[in-house]
């Protein structure tokens, strides 16, 4: 054997220890990399585990405050809030989404009071508040892009007023970041940042989430506004547009099937913080695989999260943030 040829195996020699491998690791994960999503509902003392999204619950605001306290004890101090409302409160104009005392607005205020250091992101989309389950207002059976913009901007404003650090528009309406940025600035919320769901694909990986958020469309699908999974360049252009419109951070969603898009956005805008959404479907594929004995949950989860970070994500939005941090110890 010509030992001079063993160039790369010097990094992974026989009898290598974890310390040897750690020394050469190019990618790291830490609690500060994660953003933990929550689903908030009206009421008190509510903690309803979701049957299709293991490890995640519908939480009332009091229980949310407790859960965020637990996450913070592990070092996870960034959270993303989704509101979930009763069907009787939904209508075509999504009026519940823009109430100044909506469940999300009150949750933001409660979290900021309890933990001033927590970074709160809020999802800005109306699909959980419209009776038809689409992400904007309809004109007949078509989405009216431009008529949806003021509604999204108003929703973002209520979150900013409540104290959100970031608003995250996820409807994929053209011009949504610009509309929100303008409305926030007009009202003096110049420090509230926008995290664009810049490249959000029409993916099959959202199924458990739509159950959790009760936001499945009642007819049709979202292919007219979410992106075609076959398009990479378009995803990078969407990110460029969000940046131009005033987004401070960018995002690719889902993550695992779109690592090339993540890498492409990072290569084009290395200076801009980039988030990746590790979706409900990605989580549950791993959970089911682990339950079927295909692999260990811990190892598969960490490999998945390392891959997302390696591809270029600075931040990972994942339901498994707390467990991941515990596994990393
Ligand atoms: Zn939506």
Described by its quaternary structure, the protein is single chain
Mass-distribution shape: globular
CATH topology of the domain at 40-246: TIM Barrel
What is the radius of gyration?
Answer: 20 Å
Total beta strand runs: 13
Mean pLDDT: 94
The fourth-level CATH homologous superfamily of the domain at 40-246 is Aldolase class I
Which small-molecule species are bound to the chains here?
Answer: zinc ion
- Which CATH architecture of the domain at 40-246 would you pick? Alpha-Beta Barrel
Helix content estimate:
25-40%
Poorly predicted segments:
none
Structural class: alpha/beta
Describe this entry's structure for a reader.
- By secondary structure, the protein is of the alpha/beta class.
- It has a domain at 40-246: Aldolase class I (TIM Barrel, Alpha-Beta Barrel), CATH 3.20.20.70.
- 38% of the residues lie in helices and 16% in strands.
- The chain has eleven helices and 13 strands.
- It has helices at 18-23, 61-73, 103-114, 145-162, 176-186, 207-213, 233-245, 259-268, 280-291, 297-311, 321-328, and strands spanning 34-41, 47-49, 57-60, 78-83, 119-124, 138-139, 142-143, 166-169, 193-194, 199-200, 250-253, 274-278, 315-318.
- Strands 1, 2, 3, 4, 5, 8, 9, 10, 11, 12 and 13 form an eleven-stranded mixed sheet that branches.
- Helix 4 crosses helix 5.
- It is globular.
- The structure holds zinc ion.
- Zinc ion binds at residues 125, 127, 135, 170-171.
């Amino acid at each position: 054997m010509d030992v001079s040829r063993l160039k790369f195996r010097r990094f992974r020699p026989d009898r290598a220890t974890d310390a040897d491998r750690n020394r050469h690791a190019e990618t790291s994960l830490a609690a500060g990399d994660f953003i933990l999503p929550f689903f908030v509902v009206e009421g008190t003392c509510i903690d309803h585990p979701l049957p299709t999204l293991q490890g995640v619950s519908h939480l009332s605001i009091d229980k949310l405050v407790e859960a965020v306290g637990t996450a913070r004890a592990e070092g996870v101090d960034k959270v993303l809030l989704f509101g979930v409302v009763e069907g009787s409160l939904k209508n075509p104009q999504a009026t519940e989404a823009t109430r100044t005392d909506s469940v999300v607005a009150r949750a933001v205020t409660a979290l900021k009071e309890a933990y001033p250091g927590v970074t709160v992101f809020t999802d800005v989309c109306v699909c959980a508040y419209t009776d038809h389950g689409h992400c904007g207002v309809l004109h007949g059976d078509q989405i009216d892009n431009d008529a949806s913009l003021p509604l999204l901007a108003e929703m973002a404003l209520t979150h900013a007023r409540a104290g959100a650090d970031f608003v995250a528009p996820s409807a994929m309406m053209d011009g949504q970041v610009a509309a929100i940025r303008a409305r926030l600035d007009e009202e003096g919320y110049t420090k509230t940042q926008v995290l664009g769901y810049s490249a959000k694909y029409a993916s099959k990986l959202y199924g458990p989430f739509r159950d959790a958020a009760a936001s499945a469309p009642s007819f049709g699908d979202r292919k007219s506004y979410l992106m075609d999974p076959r398009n990479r360049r378009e995803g990078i252009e969407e990110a460029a547009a969000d940046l131009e419109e005033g987004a401070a951070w960018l995002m690719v969603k889902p993550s695992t099937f779109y690592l090339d898009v993540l890498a492409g956005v990072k290569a084009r805008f290395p200076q801009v913080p980039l988030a990746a959404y590790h979706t409900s479907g990605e989580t549950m594929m791993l959970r089911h695989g682990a339950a079927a004995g295909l692999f260990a949950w811990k190892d598969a989860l960490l490999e998945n999260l390392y891959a997302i970070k390696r591809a270029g994500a600075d931040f990972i939005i994942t339901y498994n943030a707390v467990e991941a941090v515990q596994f990393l110890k």
